[in-house]
Design brief:
DNA Polymerase III, Chain A, domain 2; alpha+beta; DNA-binding (chains A, B); homodimer; 13-stranded antiparallel beta sheet; about 375 residues; nine-stranded antiparallel beta sheet; about 15% helix; Beta sliding clamp (chains A, B); DNA-directed DNA polymerase activity (chains A, B); DNA-directed DNA polymerase (chains A, B); 3 domains
């Protein structure tokens, strides 16, 4: 095999497939990037058996062939090469020689035979949206998936298509994040749970440009993202997702309009009095025109008032400040509306059209003091 | 006590004194910043008993007083306050109230009585140089002090003044870094060993501007840096520093002139084949007009040729690549000269005037292969 790339093209393709290289695995071949130039096209593949990425690298095939190279070493070499043409050549002993200007690296390769190629997946349903939108919708929801695997479904996000609206939902038992996007076109209804890891990795590869498109295909067990020269295939999470509709309610006793940035900065200041892992709530006291925030901890106490627009009852309620911060950070509106019922019921931060809904459970506080 | 600051002035002063707050200590009072407004001047002090910093904060004294506040919490609070006037007020129970706009923090303080004020040091000899120069000279030598405390003297740097030249030396048993600066003015000869930690911290506070001055005072056991509104006092390291003159020699068998950037990039590429902690040398083969670099490891091998100007004998010699990288990184010259004797003798990277000298011991290699 003998291939020539520009360094920048090579680095781009390697960086993309690196996202599906597992850091630990019992199958050493999966720690490799497969370079397949058995045709006139150069295809890079990586696969951790749950997530797989395939990308077409721009380069010239001088001699066809296939080789699997240790992903970490190979990517490090490429990263540090001078900005010039890079030649990759293999010999009969599967040693790869990587040459760029006067630098010459030799690294041992593996035959591609044992490599786990991506599963062949039937491509039927497909939706198309901009890379910007997909990247945004992931960023705006991914923080409220559960970190631990006790409930597998909570580690993923629901992607639901209904009436040509894509609804993305994540929840961890303490909060729910919901984002809705209207799709351009007619699509059959669909409901799948996509692993959080897949979404995290794909959002790192997406260009984030409004003008770049991404197509999403659904099959029985897989979701496929196709964009630019790249295909990402991921297993879906099995099982019926939580019925969230019954947790959402449009009844409320108190409605607050507040400047988002002021609210966020204030909570951010308050959290410095909370040690990592400590579960001190921030106490919010809502009265006419004023929201008082208060936190008390072993380190000290903090109090701050923020001007608000309020309708309905006064209320005092406690929250885990992190949950408020996470939600407020991904809302672009200058002003947000908060809906509350009582100190034990969840609060909702949502816009009028419910394009976003953030539900947060309160923390029990001793309101008598 | 009642003081008013602008947030930016307060943050600046707090950030400066934070550099001498110990992260762990058996004396909790040392984890505090002392705010002393017993006169009309506001002085912030921190002290870890080896290094102490005192800075005058710009602010208004509405009511005189003294208090010690937990440095970490206090600095975190200041950092996150809105950009406006900040008031610090203490009550008779030593509780400090920090107010800015509508935010109000209460944190417990301590009486200043137990605080270890900076030692009173007699100020005799003093040299003056630009903050830029001092910051540079530290950066250019600090990497070759020893990390472990087996030999206390190796954890510091020699500051030697002789014939109005300041010579700064660091060494760790494998290499020596020397920088010389001509001083403007007449100064008595002096020789002290300054703790590396002091130099690291002070270089973070120095502005790095050519037009800003710093005065350095020497006493029996201390060194004092005075600049802007700040005084840094540090203990010196006791003992006679190593006699380095006998390790330096101007004899050589081979002299090489090489482009610094090419050389540095090449070694940097080679090191990716060396695992952290692994002691693989880079092998340098010097012939007429060409320097060949080679590294072999379990991960693979690398070879690269660089054009050089050479005079004297051919030589093959091995080095710890990190030592070469460290020295080359802090040399500003486009082209560097390397002087070699034989594969077992140290090499010197130095300029013609010996304003800098980097001595590096070679690694034994099997030159027969």
């Amino acid at each position: 095999m003998k291939l020539v790339f520009s360094k920048s093209n090579l680095l781009k393709s390697v960086s993309i497939v690196m996202k599906a290289v597992p850091s630990r695995t019992t199958m050493p071949i999966l720690e490799c990037i497969l370079i397949d130039a058995s045709t006139n096209e150069i295809k890079f593949t990586s696969n951790d058996m749950e997530l797989g990425i395939e990308t077409i690298a721009e380069g010239t095939v001088l001699e066809k062939g296939v080789i699997a190279l240790d992903a970490k070493i190979f990517s490090e070499i490429v990263r540090r090469l001078p900005d010039n043409d890079v030649t990759i050549e293999t010999d009969s002993n599967l040693v790869a020689t990587i040459t760029c200007e006067k630098a010459k690296f030799n690294i041992p390769g593996k035959s591609g035979e044992d490599f786990a190629y991506l599963p062949m997946v039937e491509r039927n349903d497909c939706i198309t949206l901009s890379q910007f939108t997909l990247k945004e919708i992931i960023r705006q929801t991914i923080f409220s998936i559960a970190a631990n695997e006790n409930n597998k479904l909570m580690t993923g996000e629901l992607f639901e298509i209904k009436n040509n609206i894509l609804k993305v939902v994540s929840l961890d038992g303490h909060r729910i994040a919901i984002r809705k996007i209207e799709l351009a076109g007619n699509y059959p209804d669909r409901k799948v749970v996509v692993p959080g890891k897949t979404l995290n990795e794909i959002s790192k590869i997406l260009s984030g440009e409004v003008d770049d498109q991404v197509s999403i295909f659904f099959s029985e067990n897989h979701i496929i993202f196709e964009f630019d020269q790249t295909v990402v295939v991921s297993r879906l999470i099995d099982g019926e997702y939580f019925r969230i509709d019954q947790m959402l309610s449009s009844d409320y006793e108190t409605k607050v309009k507040i400047n988002k940035k002021e609210f966020l900065n204030c909570i951010d200041r308050a959290t410095l009095l909370v040690k990592e892992g400590d579960k001190k709530p921030i106490i919010i006291n809502i009265e006419d025109g004023i929201m008082g925030l208060r936190i008390d901890s072993a380190m000290g106490s903090m109090k701050e008032d923020i001007d608000i627009e309020k309708s309905g009852k006064d209320i005092m309620i406690g929250f885990n400040p992190k949950f408020l911060i996470d939600a407020l950070k991904v809302i672009d509106d200058e002003e947000v509306s908060i809906y509350l019922v009582n100190p034990k019921a969840p609060c909702f931060i949502k816009d009028d059209n419910e394009n976003y809904i953030y539900l947060i459970l309160p923390v029990n506080i001793n309101t008598s003091r």
